[in-house]
Amino acid sequence: MRKINDFKPFVPSNDYAVSKAFYECMGFTLNWDSEEVCEIDTNFGYRFLLLPKNHNNYAHSLMLHFMVNSAQEWYDHFKHVQLVEKFKGTKVAPPELMPWGLLITHVWDPAGVLLHFAEKPDGNT
Questions:
Q1: CATH fold of 10-119, please?
Q2: How far is CA 14 from CA 20, 21, 96, in A?
Q3: DSSP string across 15-42
Q4: Are 60 and 23 in contact (CB under 8 A)?
Q5: Which of 83, 84, 86, 89 is deepest in the core (most CB within 10 A)?
Q6: What does the domain layout of the chain look like in residue ranges?
Q7: Which residues contact 53 (CB under 8 A, 6 or more apart)?
Q8: How far apart are CA 33 and CA 64, in angstroms?
Q9: Cβ of 122: how many Cβ atoms within 10 Å?
Q10: 115: DSSP letter
């Protein structure tokens, strides 16, 4: 039977060093690094590959969706680590209940990638 052993999206950056620092400030881990790509570990079972370039401004079209237990706790964490103050161009929005039923904290990384930290208000992730 055919099997996929792993899946990691490629995430672009405008400034490689700034993006690596941004994700580490969020609480993610830099597993390994080279000049061409690095692996970011979310520390909850998922990883992605960070690129040093933003081909055709791809970052503004990319979104990553994380299902979490509490969108509010993630929002509070981002405020506590001062993402917006430390990283120019970064935005963090308070949790908002979306019409499709998820409570989402939106975060824009320094390159413009939109991150969703979403929870089901009934507690099921």
A1: 2,3-Dihydroxybiphenyl 1,2-Dioxygenase; domain 1 (3.10.180)
A2: 11, 13, 28
A3: SHHHHHHHHHHHT-EEEEE-SS-EEEE-
A4: no
A5: 83
A6: 10-119
A7: 12, 13
A8: 21
A9: 7
A10: E
Give the separation between CA 104 and CA 121, rounded to whole angstroms: 10
Distances, alpha carbon 102 to alpha carbons 55, 112, 121, in Å: 31, 22, 7
- Looking at this protein, which amino acid is placed at residue 44? F
- Render each residue's pLDDT in the chain as its tens digit; 125 residues: 899 999 999 999 999 999 999 999 999 999 999 989 999 999 998 999 999 999 888 898 999 999 999 999 999 999 999 999 999 999 999 999 999 999 999 999 999 999 999 999 875 55
Helix (H, G, I), strand (E, B) or coil at 50: strand
The gap from C-alpha 55 to its chain's centroid, in whole angstroms, comes to 18
